[in-house]
Q: What sequence folds into this?
């Protein structure tokens, strides 16, 4: 199990490049909020959502990161159904955090219906800004909580 120390202020963001114009809104918002809170953010690009879980696990095993965020925009179409891809990615992210002890957060989101038309693209670009802010807040709160738990355990010794 990999356990970064409470002093670790590094977070990795893994972003899928499908629909990069939407995904990057989330990444930019999360990165800005995390850096404002004193975290260093490293960004890793993967082709699609299915590559995120293994990348998260490999990054967690390095011991460098206090948390890892995966972000993707998973739409229906092509060979794989979006619900299959989404479930597979989320299960993989959960496995990565449970195996490594490093919290892994997800903004791998699947719209119910999506069509590449300007109003929908604009809606999801704005929506992913909000999701970036929310995932940054969740990461900060969780990492701070784990640091507090670690400090309490260290004080008992």
A:
């Amino acid at each position: 199990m990999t356990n970064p120390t409470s002093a670790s202020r590094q977070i990795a963001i893994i972003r899928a490049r499908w629909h990069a114009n939407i995904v990057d809104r989330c990444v930019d918002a999360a990165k800005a909020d995390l850096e404002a809170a004193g975290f260093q953010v490293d960004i890793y690009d993967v082709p699609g959502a299915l590559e995120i879980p293994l990348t998260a696990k490999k990054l967690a095993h390095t011991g460098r990161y206090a948390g890892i965020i995966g972000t993707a925009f998973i739409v229906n179409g092509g060979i794989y159904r979006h619900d299959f891809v989404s479930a597979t990615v989320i299960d993989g992210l959960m496995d990565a955090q449970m195996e490594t002890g490093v919290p892994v957060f997800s903004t791998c989101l699947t719209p119910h219906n999506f069509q590449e038309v300007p109003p929908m693209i604009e809606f999801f670009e704005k929506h992913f800004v909000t999701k970036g802010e929310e995932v940054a807040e969740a990461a900060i709160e969780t990492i701070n909580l784990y640091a507090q738990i670690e400090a309490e355990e260290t004080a008992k010794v």
Q: What stands out?
A: The first strand starts at residue 10 and ends at 16.
